[in-house]
Design goal:
With about 850 residues, this protein is an alpha+beta fold. Helix content is about 35%, strand content about 20%. α1 packs across α23.
Length: about 850
């Protein structure tokens, strides 16, 4: 009786062998072609779930495959270890953020090792280690010296309870996402990185990223947001003062019915000083959602200031000035003119406040000036009701308005960008200290290089809200490095996106005395294949692109783009479970009893919710450790690759993992049946093997892992059906090699049993015999009176007489004809034989 593959024994044994042999340590001195494979490094939150496993398994398969194809592979792992969750844990669990973080790193590292990933652990880094963030501080000073870092006052979202700045996305219904306190708008001095200096480069650089998903490139293009248009000045009626407006549609100026200022516009604030009602309106705007998506999707609200501006083409045409909640200070000039007929947002606003709606772009034969529809016309058309612009096409009209504005001195054509400089100040402890000192006499002074790293103090107090660094009794007090007088350290820390903007460079080169060695880093960069979730499509990837280009501009690195290839994998999803009291429950806390789902602890009914991306907040995660205990690492890896295209979501299922476990045992039985003693050849099996070799290689290269898995299933079936032969022995050996990147523990065990030399991790990928990839046989359809009765396999190009004879000899055809001679036989070479009776 055949034995079963024992993953508990095999997994541990081969993982130890790989570690002893340092199998996956990248050699900087190697002359082999290089391959840099990287998955986005994780935040050490405590445990990995099978969603992480899918991401890292994809990268691991590619890394192992590249090694077998003769590449020197860099496949490292580290930890994105700074951030608010550690501070929250410190507050809730009375534990130091560093202690919490490092305990989580140890736990997650152990989990990753159980999965047998081919990682170079000698290059492991954590962004919370001084050995990392000290070099980050040095790079920050380099950027400052190059004019790419500056400090200025900026309006921010301030949480008065947590006493920290919130990103727009952290303000929910006007309240802090964590504290629930009403958010205040404040002006604070903040540190910025001058990413806008690279806007054009970052935009045009997308054209060269042909190995990135189109959707990601489009998302970045929209975020950078290059807009060509006109900047011009409105004058208040009867005054010499006014305000600037930017528009991408100067062709629609004759359709204007109002002007609007952002609630954050200086003029709005000046007017509010004399108008309590306007001040209250502005306060309500600032208390609402602050993200662009919330503002765009929310109700359009305005406040009529009572002021009007003159139309630039007709000083007797006066437009009312509103303060409107949908006008962003960060875009253009913080002020707009509204043309309701040709902008849906403006139309919604105009209908609400009963403003004129004037058509100035024809919609087919609709040219009447009074627009009555509920949907703005934003399509193409010729200009109408616009005096000297009438009859022009849109682009022609834009150019004419800009030319007149420039000639008359009230406007000019300009290009503006949606992209804004990157604010990197965070008012929290657990982050990279910003390496600057504030001196009353000398101003803001960089920390001297020989005093780096600026270390975080260990004796920290989280009993009060706010940034513990600001109230530390000694840490912030320091002598000014220029005058020696009393000074204080910068107490803000860096946005954690800074940490992840250059970690891939540090993986490639890790000298002790500097952030990286230029030549050593360039030998690996750009990353050949980067894998991670699409949720990082904009900020992380954009900031990493900026950081790399900034280093290039400073002469520190001769690489423009950090990631040559990008793949955004789908998520692993799972049903969600909601208890009777509103608590989310994990899959291990519920069970099915008949048609009902109940909470195991209480027996109470549980509502099954939507199938969603695995997340700790919904508790619908699946821990890989119990799965590995039951099925082994290879079964889990196989399931992660097999049931869905990798760019799509993968629903977790018990049936799926059980099926993967069965295949692992099935492959082991195939190996046990292969005694490597067969004789003779099997041309069909030879052809199947070599087509699988070529097909699996192509599928892995294109990250089509589910297709590769399907081909291995087919090859396994062909081997099982084939009689003993030398061809079968070769196919058994071949399927083990082809499966090795996916199920490496079983592959090592099988390789040893088959007498393979050394580790299969060091083996060479089999070469496909291209003469066996060409079809030399075809399937011929056999019809009787036009109906399919049989099929036969014939040599490609067989002559008509042979095909006719083979068809007439078919048992099914003989029975159909019942002894009667055919009246006619029609032969279509390589396709069909039709017998007419």
């Amino acid at each position: 009786m055949a034995s079963r593959f024992d993953p508990k024994t095999a997994d541990a044994r081969w993982q130890e062998r790989w570690e002893q042999a340092q199998s996956f340590a990248a050699d900087n001195a190697s002359a082999k072609p290089r391959a840099y494979v990287l998955e986005m490094f994780p935040y050490p939150s405590g445990r990995i779930h099978v969603g992480h496993v899918r991401n890292y398994t994809m990268g691991d398969v590619l890394a192992r495959y590249k090694r077998m194809r003769g590449h020197e592979v860099l496949h490292p792992m580290g930890w994105d270890a700074f951030g608010m969750p550690a501070e929250n844990a410190a507050i809730e669990k009375k534990v130091h953020p560093g202690e919490w973080t490092r305990a989580n790193i140890a736990a997650m590292k152990a989990q990753l090792k159980r999965l047998g990933f081919a990682l170079d652990w000698s290059r492991e880094l954590a962004t919370c280690d001084p050995e990392y963030y000290g070099h980050e501080q040095a790079l920050f000073l380099d950027l400052h010296a190059a004019g790419l870092v500056y400090r200025k006052e900026s309006a921010v979202n301030w949480d008065p309870v947590d006493q920290t700045v919130l990103a727009n996305e952290q303000v929910i219904d006007g309240k802090g996402w964590r504290s629930g306190a009403p958010v205040e708008r404040r002006k604070l001095s903040q540190w910025f990185l001058r990413i806008t200096a690279f806007a054009d480069e970052l935009l045009h650089g997308l054209d060269a990223l042909d190995q990135w998903p189109d959707k990601v490139r489009l998302m970045q293009e929209n975020w950078i947001g290059k807009s060509a248009g006109m900047r011009f000045r409105f004058k208040f009626v009867g005054e010499t003062t006014g305000f600037e407006v930017f528009t991408t549609r100067p062709d629609t100026l004759f359709g204007a019915s109002f002007a609007a200022l952002s609630p954050d516009h200086p003029i709005a604030h000046r007017l509010a000083e004399a108008s309590p009602a306007l001040a209250a309106f502005i306060a309500r705007c600032q208390a609402g959602g602050t993200s662009e998506a919330e503002i765009e999707g929310g109700e359009k609200q305005g406040f009529d200031t009572g002021y009007c501006v003159e139309h630039p083409f007709n000083k007797n045409w006066h437009l009312p000035v509103y303060v409107a909640n949908f006008v962003l200070m960060e875009y253009g000039a913080g002020a707009i003119f509204g043309c309701p007929a040709h902008d849906q947002r403006d139309l919604d606003f105009a209908r609400k406040y009963e403003l004129k709606v004037l058509r100035v772009v024809a919609d087919g034969d609709k040219t009447d000036i009074h627009f009555t529809g509920d949907e703005a016309w934003t399509g193409a058309g010729r200009i109408v009701n616009s005096h000297f612009l009438d009859g022009m096409e849109i682009e022609e009209a834009k150019a004419e308005v800009i030319a007149r504005a420039r000639h008359e001195g009230w406007g000019e054509g300009v290009t503006v960008w949606r992209l804004r400089d990157w604010g990197v100040s965070r008012q929290r402890y657990w982050g990279t200290p910003i390496p600057f000192i504030h001196c009353a006499a000398c101003g803001v002074v960089p920390v001297p290089r020989d005093q780096l790293p600026v270390l975080l103090p260990e004796d920290i107090d989280f009993d009060a809200p706010g940034n513990p660094l600001t109230r530390h009794p000694t840490w912030k007090h320091v002598a000014c490095p220029r005058c020696g007088g009393g000074a204080r350290r910068e107490t803000d820390t860096l946005d954690t996106f800074v940490d992840s903007s250059w970690y891939f460079i540090r993986f490639a080169s890790q000298p002790e005395d500097r952030p990286f060695d230029k030549a050593a880093a360039e030998a690996w960069l750009p990353v050949g294949q980067y894998i991670g979730g699409v949720e990082h499509a904009i900020l992380h990837l954009l900031y990493a692109r900026f950081w790399t280009r900034a280093l290039q501009r400073m002469g520190r690195l001769d690489v423009a783009e950090p990631f040559g290839g990008l793949f955004t994998q789908g998520m692993v999803t799972h049903e969600t479970y909601l208890a009777r009291d509103g608590r989310w429950l994990g899959p291990d806390e519920v069970e099915r009893r008949g048609d009902e789902i109940v909470e195991i602890a209480t027996g109470h009914h549980v509502e099954a919710g939507r199938i969603e991306k695995m997340s700790k907040s919904k508790k619908n995660t699946v821990d890989p450790d119990p799965i590995i205990d039951r099925f082994g690492a290879d079964a889990l890896r196989w399931f992660m690759l097999s049931d869905s295209p990798p760019e799509r979501d993968l629903p977790w299922s018990e049936a799926g993992i059980e099926g993967a476990g069965r295949f692992v045992q099935r492959l082991w039985r195939i190996v046990e049946s292969g005694e490597l003693s067969g004789e003779g050849s099997d041309p069909n099996l030879d052809r199947k093997l070599h087509r699988t070799i070529a097909g699996v290689a192509e599928d892995i290269e294109t990250l089509s892992f589910n297709k590769a898995v399907a081909k291995l299933y087919e090859l396994a079936t062909a081997i099982e059906r084939a009689p003993p032969s030398a061809s079968r022995d070769s196919a058994v050996r071949g399927i083990v090699l082809l499966a090795a990147p996916m199920i490496p523990h079983l592959a090592e065990e099988a390789w040893e049993r088959l007498g393979g030399e050394g580790l299969i991790a060091d083996a060479t990928w089999p070469e496909a015999d291209h003469t066996l990839l060409v079809d030399d046989a075809v399937t011929i359809a056999i019809q009787v009176n036009g109906k399919l009765r049989d099929t036969l396999t014939a040599a490609k190009g067989a002559d008509r007489a042979d095909l006719e004879a083979m068809a007439l000899a078919s048992d099914k055809v003989v029975r159909q004809l019942a002894g009667a001679p055919p009246r006619k036989v029609i032969v279509v070479p390589d396709r069909l034989v039709n017998i007419v009776s």
